[in-house]
Amino acid sequence: MLAVTFQGLRGAFDILSPAVPPPRAEIAVVSGHPGPGVRDAFEFVTRASTRGAYIIDRSLPRPASTPRAGISYSFRLSLRGRTVEAALRPGVLPERFFELFGLAADDAVAAVELSDLKRAIAARVLQSTTASLFEFA
Description:
With 137 residues, this protein is α+β, with helices and mostly antiparallel strands. It has one domain (2-136): CATH 3.30.1330.130. The chain has helices at residues 2-16, 36-46, 48-51, 95-103, 108-126, 130-133, and strands at 27-31, 54-56, 74-79, 82-88, 134-136. Strands 2-1-3-4-5 form a 5-stranded mixed sheet. The longest helix is centred in the last third of the chain and has 19 residues, at 108-126. The chain starts with a helix and ends with a strand.
């Protein structure tokens, strides 16, 4: 999720501050995903969690491509009174990812397959355009 979130941030920054990198102190994040990989990506780039400018909101719209209840692969980024919303496009995370996620805690074979799949997803995502991964509004 680090790679996916990083790419989402790139796309959001291209909209909010295309000419220069935005100052960390002015960025606020609302994330629909409570996972540590997502939080860590936002924290690394924005320090929003450390600054108290990071909120988890499980009521954010959940893209149809994310079947896990209570988790939205979407976020809102605010900067200087402007906000951009990003939602993960269908197919970025394959169905097998979600299947394995539920099995990996109790099944060593599934855990290895999930780990391999995560690496493959990260490699593909980092070579993709942000617009092919996220819908921005």
